[in-house]
Amino acid sequence: MDVFGNLTFSDNGKYVLTIHPEGFTYVTNDGKKNFAVNFSDVRDVAQIRYLDSNVAYNLIFRGMDGQELANIDTDVKAHEGQHNIKETKSLLTAFAAYKLTNNFPTNIDSLNVTLGFTLGEKDIRLENGVISGKKHRVSISDIRRVKCMPLGTLLVYTKEKGGFFDFPDIKVPANSLTVPLLEAIVTRNTGHGIDFSQGNGYDLPNSEHILIRYMDPDFFLTDNLELAEDWQKICFNRANSFGYAVRELVEN
Length: 252
Description:
4-stranded antiparallel sheet, globular, about 250 residues, alpha+beta, about 30% strand, PH-domain like, 5 helices, single chain, 14 strands
């Protein structure tokens, strides 16, 4: 994905957020928060309320040593009848684009990147074509199914079909890196993407809100803004059909 240029959000009345291809700045109007963060220094981003609310999220950027680099609020201004994600998705997409590099998605097999952190697996990484944590590991060429749970977990399987005991080979957190990455991997392997049909039996009939928040269609363009492979076209068309691409959000 070729990263968009600088973006500035300042109409919320509380802060100015400026995003550029290698990081961001965030300054509150009262002067209490003033951050300048380089994506190269960020290990992962904790996202509070982003998957279970529709306004006023909290993003915590953590460094390579796990220490907090910045704690910011985003999309504090509500707009009825839509996903309020303009600032947050723009920032998380820029972060993911930096980590996945302009060579994504054709560099999947050579990527070395931290994908997230869980208590069970600790740091989860993709390295030399293998996704691994403290307890589990799976070769990306063996992945046949990925199931997204509505609270933000991706279940990764190497079996085509599940039985009564359908245990995943590894669980990874859904975020702006893992969702487009695993969508690309499983689509390349099988011709179909992540299963977002799982709901919570209450107010979420499926987990498509996670697709909308984390997957941008332009991730699947090459650095020449092309769709070189059929699987890239499948990924692009699917994500594009849901709307909320960053290029659309910033125009509104």
